[in-house]
UniProtKB/TrEMBL annotation:
Gene behind the chain: MTMR12
Species this protein is from: Sus scrofa
UniProt name for this protein: Myotubularin-related protein 12
Subunit relationships: Heterodimer with lipid phosphatase MTM1. Heterodimer with lipid phosphatase MTMR2.
Assigned keywords, A-Z: Cytoplasm, Sarcoplasmic reticulum
Locations listed in the record: Cytoplasm, Myofibril, Sarcomere; Sarcoplasmic reticulum
């Protein structure tokens, strides 16, 4: 009874609507105040919280009375909350500081607390969702804790709205909006659309809940073969061309089913290949590129070069180290990956073609090649947050089988196939050759490679987003007690996937594959032309792939071998030495000007400064290990086995310093 009487305003009498309308802009009212106090209310952010956008000249209305009474200030949105910063909040700062553990204030709305958002357009209230073509006059936010906020945007100029570039934030791609943002960032939203047909993984457990397909593609086609045979968007080039990927259809023996599959692919082909407006070139990575067996074999040989038990073993293998390195073929595989990425870039950049990558499940080599193309072509992917978003999009949401490829379960019938490590090694080649083009260093890549084998976080521990979500919900983050069912090995060996592709692609798509001679000529011309000019670190970036330019990632592979480290050597030690010398020069200049200290004091101070860099090694920042060794720097024991100069010439790689790798 008491509640109804108070809330209803005396028996339900409706308050009269005010008739006064102000034609004075609020910035004019507050001009004098702003001239007197230019102090702007500070937005308090939690550690890791990022600002997304903000709008000035916003009125927080006391009540809905045609926005005549309210508080003038800024409305901001972060990835954690919506906040209103009023001009009169400075008086509250002293009270706020008394609560050190207070996460949100009176005018803060956490995003999880938002129940519904409405906009008022011409005095009509409408529910807001998606991207807006026009700003509402009033923004109304209903909160789950029963608060209601009214913000008047009538005086907010659209050009004054500040948006923080999404490149400053790693995108998780676990919502439909994340994919829409990526489409908008790459200008791919004119030809492609984000779909939610697999929401709840009701179509395919291999695909993410949300992904992007060509706009003309009917969404009902996606479930027909559980997502197989569907061109999925990876990235759009500045000229409108796009990089797509497709998983092969299931292998069938029945002629009738094969004909159905062929007709389905023909329909897909007509959607994505519409000359002269849309031209698609197909890259069959299962038959025209590497096989997983080659990667596994090469890495198995390669890693043995760094599994050194003692100093004696190190010097024994040092005699034939480069020969063993070459026989492993690991560097050659890296070179082939970089070359394939450049070939695709030439088609996108120079020939204005769309590229369709084909693979059995589109989750191994497709992830590798598409990621390399984006790192080379998109400067955003060379920033720290951009690179994190790339890994999340192409590898995590792309369904790369980290559990199987890293053999986390240590199943006896499987071996490690480090496709993701191969990608990081390729990126390292770019970072090593073009350091100014990247916002991160080789140490970042080394730590990222280590995280493959640290299951504290679940990022690299599952075979698909569905498997990750299922295990996270069931809290089964530890290893299962029984071995899980092995994933089918179809497509692991090249001959099986060759047969599959030949049966299903048909003559139409196979015509799109250019001859190797023509491809080689185009590649060489494009590659030489780019390297003949000074590199632009804010645009296209190509690596050198000639023999000596592809090197061993020393920081990752040699860091636990003390004999391979150079005390006081390496880039970090060199830079540290230069900084020390610069500090010394500056200090000397100050001392000369002041002439307060003796020459002996100056010399003693300089000596102490120069000691710091000597404690660094060529493999900084990783641990500097010491192993007692009686072997000299040069393996003289190997010299005794050499009979004459001709034998020495035959083994020209014996005495090359590992620091040059």
């Amino acid at each position: 009874m008491l509640g109804k009487g108070v809330v209803g305003g005396g028996g339900g009498t409706k308050a009269p609507k005010p008739s006064f309308v102000s034609y004075v802009r609020p910035e004019e009212i507050h001009t004098n105040e702003k001239e007197v106090t230019e102090k702007e209310v500070t937005l308090h952010l939690l550690p890791g919280e990022q600002l997304l956008c903000e709008a000035s000249t916003v009125l927080k209305c006391v009540q809905e009375d045609s926005c005549q009474r309210g508080i003038y200030g800024r409305l901001v949105c972060t990835d954690f909350k919506i906040s209103f910063l009023g001009d009169d909040e400075s008086a509250l700062d002293n009270d706020e500081t008394q609560f050190k553990n207070k996460v949100v204030g009176e005018n803060d709305i956490t995003l999880h607390c938002v129940d519904q958002i409405y906009g008022v357009f011409d005095e009509k209230k409408k529910t807001l969702f998606g991207q807006l073509k026009k700003y509402p006059e009033t923004l109304i936010i209903h909160c789950k804790d029963l608060r209601v906020f009214h913000f008047c945007l009538r005086y907010t100029k659209e050009e004054e709205v500040k948006r923080t570039d999404r490149k400053n934030h790693a995108v998780m791609f676990d919502t439909l909006q994340d994919w829409c943002w990526e489409l908008e960032r790459t200008k791919g939203n004119m030809k492609y659309k984000a779909v939610s047909v697999n929401e709840g993984y009701k179509v395919c457990e291999r695909l993410p809940a949300y992904f992007v397909v060509p706009t003309p593609l009917p969404e009902e086609d996606v479930p027909r073969f559980q997502g197989h045979g569907i061109p999925i968007w990876c990235w759009s080039c500045h000229n409108g061309c796009a990089l797509l990927k497709m998983s092969a259809l299931p292998k069938e023996q029945d002629d009738g089913i094969l004909q159905i599959q062929k007709n389905f692919l023909d329909g897909i082909y007509k959607i994505i290949h519409r000359p002269p407006y849309e031209i698609v070139k197909t890259e069959d990575l299962s038959s025209n590129f590497l096989s997983l067996q080659e990667i596994q074999t090469a890495y198995s040989k390669f890693k043995q070069l760094f599994l050194i038990d003692n100093s004696t073993e190190f010097w024994d293998t040092d005699i034939k180290w480069f020969s063993l390195l070459e026989s492993s073929s690991w560097l050659d595989i890296i070179r082939r990956c970089l070359k394939k990425a450049i070939e695709i870039i030439e088609c996108l950049e120079a020939q204005n073609m769309n590229i369709l990558l084909l693979e059995e499940n589109a989750s191994d080599l497709c992830c590798l090649v598409s990621s390399l193309v984006q790192v080379m072509m998109d400067p955003h992917c060379r920033t720290r947050f951009g690179f994190q978003s790339l890994v999340q999009k192409e590898w995590i949401m792309g369904g790369h089988c980290f559990l199987d490829r890293c053999n986390h379960l240590r199943q006896s019938d499987k071996e490690e196939v480090p496709v993701f490590l191969l990608f990081l090694d390729c990126v390292w080649q770019l970072v090593h050759q073009h350091p100014p083009a990247f916002e991160f260093t080789e140490t970042y890549l080394t730590v990222l490679s280590d995280s493959l084998y640290i299951p504290i976080f679940s990022t690299f521990f599952f075979n698909s987003p569905h498997q990750k979500d299922t295990n996270m919900h069931q809290r089964q983050l530890s290893l299962p007690l029984t071995q899980s069912k092995s994933s089918p090995k179809r497509g692991f060996f090249r001959e099986e996937t060759d047969h599959l592709i030949k049966n299903l692609l048909g003559k139409r798509i196979s015509k799109l594959i250019n001859s190797s001679e023509e491809l080689q000529d185009n590649f060489r011309e494009f590659y030489d032309s780019w390297h003949s000019k000074p590199p632009s670190y804010h645009g296209l970036l190509l690596p050198h792939i000639e023999g000596p330019e592809v090197k061993v990632w020393a920081q990752r592979y040699l860091r636990w071998i003390p004999e391979a480290q150079i005390l006081g050597g390496g880039r970090v030690a060199t830079m540290s030495k230069l900084l020390e010398m610069l500090e010394e020069v500056q200090s000397l200049q100050e001392k000369i000007e002041e002439r307060h200290h003796s020459q002996e004091a100056l010399q003693a101070e300089a000596t102490s400064l120069l000691r710091n860099s000597a404690r660094l090694s060529s493999l900084f920042p990783f641990a500097l290990l010491q192993r007692h060794s009686s072997k000299p720097v040069l393996p003289t024991s190997g010299w005794k086995a050499l009979e004459d100069e001709e034998d020495l010439a035959k083994r020209e790689d014996e005495f090359v310093d590992l620091g040059d790798v």
